[in-house]
Amino acid sequence: MKVKESVQRVCHTLLALYTHRLCKRIVMGCVAFPSFISAQELVLPQDSIIMINLDEVIMISAQKAFNFHKQAKPLSSLDEFLESSKKVAMVKRGGYAWEPTLNNMFSERLSVTIDGMRIFGACTDKMDPITSYVDASNLSKAHIASGQQGAKHGNTIGGAIDLELDKSNFRNTGFRGGVESGFEGNNQQSIIGGELNYSGAKFYADTDIIYRKAENYKAGGDKEVLFSQFTKYNISANIGYKLADDNAITASFIFDEARDVGYPALPMDVSSAQAIIGSLRYEQDSLWGRLHHWNSKLYMNTITHVMDDTNRPDVAIHMDMPGWSDTYGFFSEARLNGNINKLMFKVDGYYNRSLAEMTMYPQDPNEKPMFMLTWPDVRTANGGIYVEDELSLKGSSLKIATRIALQNQNVADEFGLNSLRIFYPEMEASKTRFLKSISGQWHKMWMPWHLNAGVSYGDRAPSVTEGYGFYIFNSFDNHDYVGDPGLKNEKSMEVNAKLSYEKPKFNISAEANFFHIPDYIIGVVDPSLSTMTLGADGVKLYRNLEYARLFNTALESEYSLLPELKWTGFISYHLGGDSEGENLPFISPLSYRSALQYDKNTFSVAVKMSGATKQVNYNPEYGEDQTLAYTVFSISLGKTFYMNNDSVMAKFGVENIFDKEYSTYTDWKNIPRMGRNIFLTLTYSIK
Amino acid sequence: MKTIKIILATFILSMGAISCSKDDGSAIIEENPMAQFNMVSQMEANGHTIELYTEGEGFTTGYNEIYIRIKDNDRETYFADPEITWTPMMHMQTMMHSGPKSLLSTTENNTVLKGYLVFQMAGKAEEYWELTLNYKVDGTDYTASKTIDVNHPTDGKQKVTTFTGSDNVKYVLAMVSPQKPKEGLNNMAAVLYKMESMKEFSLVENYTVTLDPRMTSMGNHGSPNNKDLTYDATSQMYQGQLSLSMTGYWKLNLKVLNDSGELLKGEDVTEDNEASSLYFELEF
């Protein structure tokens, strides 16, 4: 009886969430959830990736041969893989290095990690989200966690994306190799890659190399988008050695470089963006007492990003804007399983150095170059402790997680410090912040119904740009931005709920989350200030708004019409507003996706549709204009051929079949998306 | 190793402290107090050598801080507490005029006097500056004079300006600091003199010098948090704050207002008017 009541109540609440735009009511509605905690048998699906978290896991290239059919476009970029996620939207400034957003929040509100390693982009203009320094070819999965559920690797507001490197992990597979190549018609992108792996019970070594080169792409209607070319190569290696049966040491190394990358939505391009990412890990099955799965890692990465406008015509003043970001870090984690409790402890720390310069060359060669530091060599030291506990309660499970961290930021460069003191004469070079996060996520199941609900609180420190940026130009709203080291921590109070009905042939789920974010950090115009960038409309200072509120909701369904034929559908709606009732920028309009996928033996076909309605809630103050509705279609066909032990997998597809000219709300300055694109990939794998 | 370093450092420091101390009242000084300065001119007269020092390479147009000592050639010592007055004179082809000057006062070292001169223009072959000193040592009055070289600053930037105000008075405005501009907020100082006659300049008090620095090579953008220069009676200079948000060439647009706030010279920088007729320049 109780079950029925609860379900009704949830449905009712969710309905309320959909109908009420204003968020106060949503909070009330979600807080009125306690009635869910009632005694029922809990059956967690063993191999489900949903589990207690509302995580989403995107399979990228784990066990390629096995997964091949499921991927519409096997050699697509990581950005495209992430875009296929339901929660992630990609902000595009060109054909390369898209910036992931989660719950309509950008990098500074997210924790983006590679195998748990903290890495920070070196570009003040966000040309290098860290997802641009890996390649889909050396990743196995992307774990996407929403809100405070992503606090494992760092403080966050919007959530976390952790990219998992593809490793053989002592599987007894011996030597394996593969060659892959792909071609995309629209931007004449050619992709060529290879891998060679050895894996045994005691030792494994994986190596991988990939090269991608693309020319300018063409938007719908065959319109060339100038400065959208890119070249990238990535080399990676993973090695593991078992010291004993219960412990192993592993190392990973990635070298990634992109050259001649155009950013059509920005006034500058990148001649080189280079990352070296390395780590050393020690794993041991048991530690002392009942602690087990002890896993410790030391890592370092260094990024050099060279931004300039050498190739742009009619530049009033030539500029060089290189940036550097080096990070050194560690973490150590262990698990403890009790009868009811499944605990995980993690300590972590990192030290990052972010420095970016701007040199402008006056047209009069006798004049000295103009120079400033846009990131004044900010040294961030962060140490934290994370504890989570999964409690198996009677009939339900509850996960409680908390993170506390201490973060110090220090401006190491005197020149940069003096720059900032123009605005903040009393500012100290060093600032320490205390950060915290606590979340509770509850999962209840009455077959075939599932309910997930969570409440959490967390905060974050301002990013380097928000705290210390100096006249960083934002081409989106055409303003120069100056940071404020005295900003308050941004806080987040979040509630989420997901109700799903899951049967083997059919499932449907509805979910929603709501964020109340006090001290929301955003740029606010200061009309008294004079712009530095030629042609800019004004200067914005980062400020804490009283609060902002974000609401995201989605409805998703999957239906197997036949054992080989599956239909999926997804629809989402989002709202975001500030304390003045104004719209926040980059909030998605109603968007939808639908796909039909046919898989039989070695053959697969997928037809997909995606689109969005006209954007209604946008804000010209932030440089936004209305994005129009669009719908695009794509199709892909795949076939695997076997020759003895080896196999050749071929995939052919057409994206944006009707060559629609469109842009989405995440497209920087409305740069149009790619028009019709025909791709072909071939993967030859040797066992 | 570390301990040794600390001991060594302490030792060197204490040595420095000892050698820097001196006996007050004694005219004979072993340490050269002018070691950090450049001797830019020497006058031989009356059995004395008069030494003139500046921080820079020589006399330049604009504000010059000058140190003077007088040596007794026989005794090879410097006179303590000399009384000196000075007069710079520009000898032009058709006329002569002086320039603004301060009084000379003793420094920590009683053989060294300090003051400043403002040169409105550079010297040339036929037109030159002559400096005359009237001084009293050991109870006797002497006079000495010498032609001095005054050049434009090596960076060629304008650090002094002579103008006729809307009150029909001639003024000389010279930038005192920053001598070495740095990124960020700089203390800015200037001196303003009224030209009473060709030979007489008087300090102007309680006017205001407004400040609007602009980067002319980059859209003529300004910088935040500048403070207009106001008169400071202690230093007898106009003091304000100059904000330099990046390196490069800056034009410091100025306006001079009198004590009742009336504009004497200079214009606002606007869309249509990219610079004031009254300005200083700097580049770093």
Give an account of the 3D structure.
The complex is a heterodimer of chains A (687) and B (284). By secondary structure, chain A is mainly β. Chain A contains six helices and 35 strands. Chain A has a 22-stranded antiparallel barrel. Chain A has a five-stranded mixed beta sheet with strand order 1-6-7-4-5, with no helix packed on it. In chain A, a hairpin with a 3-residue loop joins strand 9 (189-199) and strand 10 (203-214). In chain A, helix 1 runs antiparallel to helix 2 (23-31). The model of chain A is unreliable at 6-52 (pLDDT under 50). Chain B is mainly β and 284 residues long. Chain B starts with a helix and ends with a strand. In chain B, strands 13, 14, 15, 16, 17, 18, 19, 20, 21 and 22 form a ten-stranded antiparallel beta sheet that branches. Chain B folds into two domains: 38-151, Immunoglobulins (Immunoglobulin-like), CATH 2.60.40.10; 160-283, Sandwich (Immunoglobulin-like). The longest helix of chain B is centred in the first third of the chain and has 19 residues, at 2-20. The radius of gyration of chain B is 22 Å and the shape is globular. Chain B has one helix spanning 2-20, and strands spanning 38-45, 48-54, 59-60, 62-72, 77-78, 83-91, 96-98, 105-106, 113-119, 128-137, 140-148, 150-151, 160-164, 170-177, 184-195, 201-203, 208-214, 227-232, 237-244, 249-257, 263-265, 279-283. The interface between A and B is medium-sized, with 31 and 21 residues.
